[in-house]
Each structure stands twice: as structure tokens, then as C-alpha cells.
Amino acid sequence: MRLRGQRHTPLIRTAWLGLCAMAALTNCGHVNLNGPTPATAGPSATPTSSASASPAPPSACSTPSADANNVFVAMANGIGAINDPTYQTLYGYGVVDQFGDVPEQAGVISETSDGSPLTSGNTLQFYNAEAAGSTILHSAYGFSAGFPSAPFAFPSPAPSPTGSAIARTAWFTGRISSPVDSICYSQTFTLAPGAYYFGDYDLYNTIAYRDVIVVSAGTRQRSFTWAARIPHRRAILAPRRRTK
Q1: How much is the pTM?
Q2: 112: domain range?
Q3: What value, to the nearest 5°, has the Cα angle with vertex 146 and ends 171 and 150?
Q4: Which residues are 105's β-sheet partners?
């Protein structure tokens, strides 16, 4: 079931605050993306910066890829934690579907927006899905193997965006800001078969803000075109949510 009033829209640039002033948008803010949703599984601490990391300015924004095989991964505190049987706590990341909806719960990032397996035929971008105007920064920092024990010694100060491939070598989105009049994206990453662990530079050590990308063998690509997605693009709102 989808909750109304919140949607991810990479291509249309309209200010959130001005839209929320319109009486017709009565659903603005009904879904809280500014803090973790209470859950029986996973983290419950208040988000704070990593004790081992030094603050750094937000990274420059990249533009959204127009490739039909690009997969968008949202980052938001309101994407609830789960206990995955293989990877344990996963929190804060989720694949956006073909309608621009953000999942209510985290999960292994192993499928495209239409539910087909994620393969090397896809590319991937992250974006900050907090409500427009939020001061919360998000990121994805790749680990070499598994989730390291906390506190993990992130490089200090925070590095610039690093790498263009999801791999077991260093890759990092940079610290991405929330939208103001447009959404801020990471660089576009290529994919290769395997399982890749990553976490948030600022929040990994405090609330296990982390996930896993699992890329299947093969090159199957998505079954719909980017052009088919264009009619679903609307004004920028705090992302609409869907049940996984």
C-alpha cells in the first residue's frame, strides 16, 4: 500500500516549501522522514555524527542519469530498519520504484525498480531523500569486506566523492545534502556481480546506518524505458513511501 503525498521526482525542479503552502497539498509531511521510525528491529538511537569522523561540507551534486537501466537508491532516516537473516541490521537505504515511491523499510539492494535482479547491465545512483530543507546529510561509504565493528575509523576529514564503480576497493558518494529546489544525486556507479557492504559516513557508528548491494550474474536489464517513467514525474515532495 502506498501512502499519499510523498514522491521522488528526479527530473522536475519545484520548491517543496512553496508547494506545501498550497492548501491542496494537505498530505505534506504526513510521513516523517526526519528521524528513525520506531521498529522492533534495528537501531533506535538519535542520529548523531560519527565520533571518528570530522565534519566536512556537503559534496557537489551530480545530475540524475537518464539511462533506463539506472537504479536510484534513496537515503532517509524514515526508511525503517530490518533484521535481515543474512546481513543482520539494515537501515536507511531503499530502491525507488518506477513510480518514484520510496520504501518504508530497508532491505538488501538486489533488485531494480521493477523488481528484476540487479546486474552489471544496470548503473546506480544515491540521493538524499530527507524532507526539503533538512540539514541531515547522507552518504554511502564502501567497505572492503563485511560490516566493520563500530566504531569504524572513517577517514578524517570526509573525502570527496570517490570512485565510479561499486567494488571492494574504495568508493564513496560524498556527503549529500537534502533537496531545496532540486534533488542532489551522487555520481553514477557501474556494477559487477558480488555483494558489497556500505554505510553512512556520519551515522554508521551510532545507529548502524548501513546496507548491502547484491549484484547478480548476467546482464538482464529493466523492462520499461525511461520515457515511460517521465509522466510520473511531479513536484518535489518529501519522498512518497511504499511498503516493501
Answers
A1: 0.73
A2: 57-232
A3: 90
A4: 80
5 falls within a domain: no
Q: Do 9 and 238 meet the contact criterion of CB atoms below 8 Å apart?
A: no
Number of domains in the chain: 1
User: In Å, how far are 1, 65, 122, 145 from 186, measured between CA atoms?
Assistant: 29, 10, 15, 22
For residue 35, tell me if it sits in a domain: no
Nearest by Cα to 76 from 154, 162, 134: 134
Residues of the chain where predicted confidence (pLDDT) is lower than 70: 1-57, 220-244
Q: Cα dihedral sign for 95, 104, 171, 85?
A: negative
Q: Does any domain span residue 241?
A: no
List the grid coordinates of 160: 570527496
pLDDT tens track for 127-138: 999 999 899 999
Q: Is residue 187 part of a domain?
A: yes
* CATH code at position 169: 2.60.40.420
Instruction: Give the span between the Cα atoms of 208 and 138, in whole angstroms.
Output: 13
Provide the residue type at 223 as one letter: S
